[in-house]
Amino acid sequence: MNGVVVEAADLARRYAQGASASAPAYQRVKDLVTEQIMSGRWREGDALPSESRFVEALGLSRMTVNRALRELAAQGLIRRVMGVGSFVALHKGSSALVEVHNIADEVRGRGHRYHAQVLFVREEAAEQETGERFGLGERASVFHSQVVHFEDEVAIQLEDRYVHPDFAPGYLEQDFTRRTPFTFLSEVAPLGKGEHVVEAVLPSSDECGILGVAPSEPCLLIQRRTWSGDALVSIARLLHPGSRYRLKGTFDSR
Fold first, then answer.
1. Are residues 66 and 101 in the same domain?
2. Domain contains 253
3. Are residues 84 and 143 in the same domain?
4. Based on the structure, what is the number of domains in the chain?
5. N or C: fewer beta carbons within 10 Å in the chain?
6. Is 111 left (phi over 0), alpha (psi -120 to 50) or beta?
């Protein structure tokens, strides 16, 4: 983690120039910190100036500064570690639980940069269970790809996908750094039905290396099957580091 390097005079100047001059002091501290984060001056994971530094630079009581930081932490903008300090909260992306979306669109929709790394795209003999799911004969050929999806420079998903070759001609020739497998499959075999199975797992040693996580970090695993008409087209295993991703769903009982 990086520490925010800021002079006391600069903190005082930004505090004095804040747009909320008539607001209570604790609110002005909140506005100051929020503006630094939203502008990108203070980035995810950065350590904030200490409470003592805020007190000294702004001429405020420790109680006022403490209230501002407590409320920012409650809002999820910063996180506080007892005995260590306060840090800009890490962004945690989210994906719809009951819908199927393009991960590139989700990342860009949050205002972040998306890119992908293709580990491989190949044709291979299907394992028995995979072949049976697709309704193919023993050792029949399937398409298999592994792609790592990134939000800014952080890996947020390892996609391990099997595809029925009859419904995705040209799959092996695609450049999945330019468009995702989801986008290509949506064009050649429009989605008719999808299934999600979600569980918490620990990553394998290979997955730790690919995603840059510790062996002890819980991950969200989505096992997704998608159909076009009545035909099963794709079986995907989507692995997300738990500290970087979440799933959400909206339900209406009306």
1. no
2. no
3. no
4. 2
5. C
6. left
Instruction: Quote the distance between the C-alpha of residue 146 and its chain's center.
Output: 18
Q: What DSSP string describes 6-55? A: --HHHHHHHHHT-S-TTS-HHHHHHHHHHHHHHTTSS-TTPBPPPHHHHH
State the Cα–Cα distance between residues 229 and 236, nearest whole angstrom: 18
Spatial CA neighbour of 159 closest among 173, 169, 171, 145 = 145
CA distance 135 to 225: 14
Q: Is residue 194 part of a domain?
A: yes
Q: Which residues form the domain of 164? A: 93-248
Closest CA to 78 of 69, 88, 70, 68: 88
In terms of domains, do 72 and 161 share one? no
pLDDT digit string (tens) for 47-76? 888 999 999 988 999 999 999 998 888 767
CB atoms within 10 A of CB 205: 8
- Tell me the pairing of strands 93-96 and 245-248: parallel
Does the global pTM surpass 0.90?
A: no
